[in-house]
Amino acid sequence: HTLNLIHSDSLQRVLNRQWLNNLKNSQAFIDIAHKEQSDMFYKFGSAVANFSDRTRHLVVPWQIIATVDAFKDGNLRQRFLANAWLDIVIDDLDIENINKNPRYIRAEIFIALRYLQNRDYKFQ
Question: What gap in Å lies between CA 23 and CA 81, rounded to an integer?
């Protein structure tokens, strides 16, 4: 999603299409509290060091936002995949499951759902 904000039209379209091509319905069932992996390995000469990035981001809200942003640049197949993926994610969310999580997780999920709603996604 961060790369999507560079606003280079041609590069943005390519990134968006790649994002849509790589959406997998199996990944739509990720737990809403799942955070991205933050361990990074750096190689210094022959030595390898492991650094942890203390900034951890939830996966599902940013995947929703990136998918909605990428939708406009997709072809018919890619848009179909995006809709199918979003339907799975949204159907898997329920208010009881969201409310069981800490406040910051609820906030990010609701931000992503509001983002969907502002883009005229129709909730069932």
Answer: 7
Read off φ and ψ for residue 119, nearest 5 degrees.
-95, 15
74 Cβ contact partners less than 8 Å away, ≥ 6 residues apart: 16, 17, 20, 81, 82
Burial letters for 56-69: b for 16+ Cβ neighbours within 10 Å, e otherwise?
eebbbbbbbbbbbb
Query: Under a CB-based contact definition with an 8 Å cutoff, are residues 73 and 13 in contact?
Result: yes
Using alpha carbons, select from 31, 22, 1, 19 the residue that is nearest to residue 109: 31
Cβ atoms of residues 49 and 64 within 8 Å: no
93: confidence class by pLDDT, cuts 50, 70, 90? confident
What pTM value is reported for the model?
0.75
The continuous run of DSSP H or E covering 50 comes out as strand 47-52
- How large is the average pLDDT for residues 72-97? 90
From CA 33, how far away is CA 106, in angstroms rounded?
9
Each residue's pLDDT tens digit, 111-121: 999 998 888 77
